[in-house]
Design the sequence.
């Protein structure tokens, strides 16, 4: 039996179990039945009926499993069946899921040809289509689409493009969090995404979704493109395709504030058409966000420092102090203590020197703004053993910085603050889950503060670079003056040094 046939012979219970990665043994133990019975329900060799004494127990177990995993696959599924379900009791949710599990209609899109209702002699055919209305409908449609992708038992490539107004995405922050969570779950399942961004938008609009896209890109499983056309089209379209499964589409006029409708299709010719349209657009695109593996991090910084613009401030936001704020001799000692390869040693020291040559050029009036949380300094000083994540990415091996070296580093930062008018340090109250280095009118470099996300993102498209710069310039101004004042900051750093063990 091939995979397609297995999917077709799987029950709704089987699809949910596979989606939540619940084994037959786990379910059998939870409801006190034999594993072979669960296997028969799952593979449609025995029918699970609504009157069965096991249905409610199964539903309760699946809802509890979803809650433990922190996902909303069943919750969003039940909302499609009964929109008011979120306000109802657990008992109502159990009954609703029980009804769905025992419905005899097969829920699968594995074979898009089954979506064809009837064929005509002239080669045409009728096919089903599902419609959602307005922005609220588009949000429901997108959640439905993403949850369906999570149910697919094969690797899927998603093709995404949206030129329409982003109001449907940005006006509901709760939806934005759900949307990001589902996309991250999709990426963790090994699926890949190709996305074409429409960057000719109000910078404020781009700014509002930066936080949600950047962590997703750092997984290394997204290819990001943009169409280099800065004109006003007469119509705007949205196309989301899950290859060989379904397509979600919408189209509005350029001056529309709200989507009129969003459509979901699954038939083979529609899927082929929308896939072709996407790749036709991609052929005219340029790469928007360059995603690089860890071994490309150092060459990226090398290239960035080799071509810094004559004019432009730099904004750096990170959780721990950067190697660029160490004295050169101390930095070299750290590298030697970790037996860094000679070629890498020379390259990263060269980067250090170019950064400082640029910043000390008397003919320039550029400033470097560095935002680091006070908590980051405390951890940096207090930990007995400290492996530096970003330096480890740069040199390609774990880099440990001794406590003595870290203390000397902070002392040197105090010295820089007192002697350099071009260097500003702000003790930020909180930062993002990623660090970034923005050079005004030039580029953005982003890396994660989390060890499991090792890829690096690089952006040079002017509209996005400006959005990043403006956003983080505003963030800098949200740091209280007392946390940016040189005397107050140096006093705070002096207090941090007391945390040395």
Sequence:
């Amino acid at each position: 039996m091939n995979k397609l046939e297995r999917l077709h012979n799987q029950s709704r219970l089987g699809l949910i179990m596979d989606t939540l990665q619940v084994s037959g043994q786990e379910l059998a133990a939870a409801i006190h039945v034999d594993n072979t019975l669960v296997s028969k329900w799952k593979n449609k060799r025995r029918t699970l009926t609504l009157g069965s004494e096991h249905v409610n127990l199964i539903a309760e177990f699946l809802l509890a499993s979803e809650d433990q995993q922190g996902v909303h696959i069943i919750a969003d599924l039940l909302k499609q069946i009964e929109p008011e379900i979120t306000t109802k009791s657990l008992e109502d949710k159990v009954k609703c899921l029980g009804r769905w599990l025992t419905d005899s209609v097969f829920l699968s899109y594995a074979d898009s040809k089954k979506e064809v209702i009837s064929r005509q002699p002239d080669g045409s055919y009728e096919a089903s289509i599902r419609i959602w209305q307005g922005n609220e409908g588009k949000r429901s449609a997108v959640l439905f689409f993403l949850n369906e992708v999570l149910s697919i038992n094969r690797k899927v490539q998603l093709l995404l493009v949206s030129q329409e107004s982003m109001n449907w995405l940005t006006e509901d922050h709760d939806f934005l969090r759900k949307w990001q969570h589902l996309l991250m779950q999709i990426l963790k399942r090994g699926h890949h995404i190709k996305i074409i961004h429409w960057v000719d938008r109000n910078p404020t609009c781009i700014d509002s979704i930066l936080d949600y896209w950047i962590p997703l890109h750092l997984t290394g499983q997204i290819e990001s493109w943009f169409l280099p056309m800065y004109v006003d089209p007469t119509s705007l379209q949205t196309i989301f395709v899950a290859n060989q499964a379904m397509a979600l589409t919408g189209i509005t006029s350029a001056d529309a504030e709200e989507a009129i409708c969003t459509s979901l299709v699954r038939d083979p010719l529609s899927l082929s058409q929308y896939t072709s349209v996407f790749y036709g657009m991609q052929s005219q695109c340029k790469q928007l966000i360059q995603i690089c593996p860890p071994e490309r991090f150092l060459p990226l910084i090398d290239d960035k420092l080799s071509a810094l613009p004559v004019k432009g401030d730099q904004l750096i936001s990170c959780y721990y102090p950067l190697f660029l704020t160490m004295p050169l001799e101390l930095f070299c000692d750290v590298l030697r203590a970790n037996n860094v390869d000679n070629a890498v040693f020379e390259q990263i020291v060269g980067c250090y020197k170019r950064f400082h040559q640029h910043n000390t050029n008397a003919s320039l009036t550029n400033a470097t703004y560095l935002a680091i949380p006070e908590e980051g300094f405390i951890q940096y000083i207090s930990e007995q053993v400290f492996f530096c994540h970003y330096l480890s990415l740069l040199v390609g091996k774990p880099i440990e910085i001794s406590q003595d070296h870290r203390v000397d580093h902070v002392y040197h930062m105090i010295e820089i603050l007192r002697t350099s008018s071009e260097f500003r340090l702000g003790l930020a109250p909180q930062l993002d889950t990623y660090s970034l280095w923005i050079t005004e009118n030039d580029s953005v470099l982003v890396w994660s503060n989390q060890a499991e996300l090792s890829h690096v993102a690089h952006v040079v498209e002017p509209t996005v670079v400006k959005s990043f710069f403006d956003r983080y310039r505003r963030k800098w101004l949200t740091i209280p003056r007392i946390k940016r004042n040189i005397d107050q900051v140096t006093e705070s750093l002096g207090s941090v040094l007391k945390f040395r063990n």
